[in-house]
Amino acid sequence: MSEVGAALREAAQRLAVASDTPRLDAELLMAHALGVERQALLLDPSRFVVPAAFAGLIERRMTHEPVAYIVGHRDFRTIRLAVGPGVLIPRPDSEALIEAAAAHFGAGGPRRVLDLGTGPGTLLLAALAEWPKATGLGVDASDAALTHARANAETLGFTGRAEFRRGDWGAGVEGAFDLILCNPPYIADSEELMPDVVDFEPNGALFAGADGLDDYRRIIPDLPRLLAPGGIAILEIGHRQRISVSGLAEAAGFAVRCRQDLGGRDRALLLTRA
Predict the structure, then answer these.
(1) Residue 199's CB: how many other CB atoms inside 10 A?
(2) Does residue 76 sit within a domain?
């Protein structure tokens, strides 16, 4: 076994007490320390020497600091997004919203996109990558998130197509949008989360009252005025919230469908005018 291979095995064994994906974490941190992509590392580990920085990265992960914060980015669908403290880390489950939008619009795509609670620009920038002729607006209450979102838009070359604004959901937003995307906080205040999440990511982007529905109650009634004729709003939900959030949407005059994530769990609600 190569020096790097042995170091990865040892690191994965240590990380088993702090992570559900210890081997993956070790590989990502080793690749980051080496300044290469994980694929290049796995292709031929024997090409590399263990860098001095690797041990420090493992120690940070042992404290449950998220890998995305340590390496400074997270890949989401077809784009790479810079992330850091104060910013919600994009999850693969959220890709279900873009997949649902792609199935709805096809190659033509929406002209104008609104992303409520944009974080580091996750859903808006993924949508703009999907449809090169689209433009959009991302809204967030967090200055830290908006700083990352604007930097990500610049890195991706989307500054002329993406606008970001500090705001309280749809309040003060004008105009009709063909596609509205939203991944709001939806975790009940009493729910227990892994230390990686609750000790590091912003609680304001996670928790939403006693039943996890507080923000849906504010967002959904405002959607009819923001949605263009023939448009669609797609909301991320917790996998046990389909019935409760669908009820809120139907009360606001929407027809509701649901799309599951890659794990087969209810994840995206698709709202169109009834």
Answers:
(1) 13
(2) no
* CA 130 to each of CA 99, 140, 188: distance values in angstroms, whole numbers, following the listed order: 10, 22, 32
| CB contact at 8 A, 150 and 125 | no
**Claim to verify: residue 50 and residue 135 sit in the same structural domain:** no
Q: What is the dihedral of CA 183, 188, 193, 195, to 10 degrees?
A: 80
Look over the chain and give the mean of its residue pLDDT values, rounded to a whole number: 95
Q: Dump pLDDT digits (tens) for 127-143.
A: 999 999 999 999 999 99
The torsion angles phi and psi of 9, rounded to 5 degrees, stand at -65, -45
pTM for this one?
A: 0.93
Look up the domain containing 58 and give its range: 3-63
Asked if residue 161 and residue 33 are part of one domain, the reply reads no
CA distance 138 to 150: 10
53-78 pLDDT per residue, tens = 999 999 999 999 999 999 999 999 99
Contact yes or no for 142/204 (Cβ under 8 A): yes
